[in-house]
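Exercise 7. Given the encoded structure of a 229-residue chain, write a plausible sequence.
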């Protein structure tokens, strides 16, 4: 009976992407509405009223665009690997994952983390990026159920996917507007807006990714302080 009771109360890991679509779908829909406005009107929407016309077409329940948006989100979110997505966020080709800089950069940048406490338990920190990521990932596996960790992980994954989709839009929508012959000034302005959108979201995802790594180290540091010697 005790075994069954223990099994019944076993915690399940939270779904980190459970509600991501609630944010990804509107993001894609708004970008599609702006794209349609640019292509059809041959210029950027200058008022909310002009954009509302295309927004109503995109969100129409029986419209082909509305039906295609969930599929587009799935495809755009899965077209690149996790490493490729990290490259788009951190702008690093080699060792782009944030855990690769966990002990060489991110640890010292967070005042919550006491490096001496961690070193007392884990010894000398690795210097190679791959070894840093391996040690950090081991710590993540131990603390992934902590609310501070999984919440920051979920936020990072969401903004990372948003940045990935935004990067795809820079290529796809800029090319589409160019083929529609919207004019070079409009094309330049529209492409600039798409690039700015990507840069802003990627910067946010980068910050959230670093905070995610630091939160894991913070939890490990607190664990070391409270554990008996």
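Solution.
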């Amino acid at each position: 009976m005790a075994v069954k009771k223990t099994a019944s109360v076993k915690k399940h890991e939270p779904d980190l992407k459970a509600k991501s679509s609630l944010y990804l779908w509107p993001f894609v829909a708004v970008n599609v509405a702006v794209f349609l406005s640019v292509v059809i009107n041959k210029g950027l929407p200058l008022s909310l009223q002009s954009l509302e016309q295309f927004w109503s077409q995109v969100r129409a329940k029986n419209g082909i665009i509305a039906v295609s948006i969930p599929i587009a989100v799935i495809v755009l979110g899965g077209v690149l690997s996790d490493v490729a997505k990290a490259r788009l966020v951190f702008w690093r080709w080699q060792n782009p994952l944030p855990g690769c800089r966990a002990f060489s950069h991110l640890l010292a940048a967070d005042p919550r983390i006491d490096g001496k406490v961690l070193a007392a338990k884990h010894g000398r920190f690795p210097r190679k990026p791959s070894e840093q990521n391996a040690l950090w990932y081991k710590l993540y596996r131990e603390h992934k159920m902590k609310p501070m960790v999984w919440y920051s992980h979920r936020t990072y994954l969401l903004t990372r996917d948003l940045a990935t989709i935004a990067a795809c839009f820079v290529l796809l929508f800029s090319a589409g507007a160019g083929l529609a012959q919207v004019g070079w000034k409009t094309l330049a302005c529209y492409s600039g807006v798409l690039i700015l959108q990507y840069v802003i979201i990627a910067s946010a995802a980068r910050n959230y990714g670093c905070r995610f790594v630091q939160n894991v180290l913070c939890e490990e540091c607190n664990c070391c302080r409270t554990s008996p010697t």
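Remark. DSSP finds ten helices and no strands in the chain. Students should compare their own answers with the one above.
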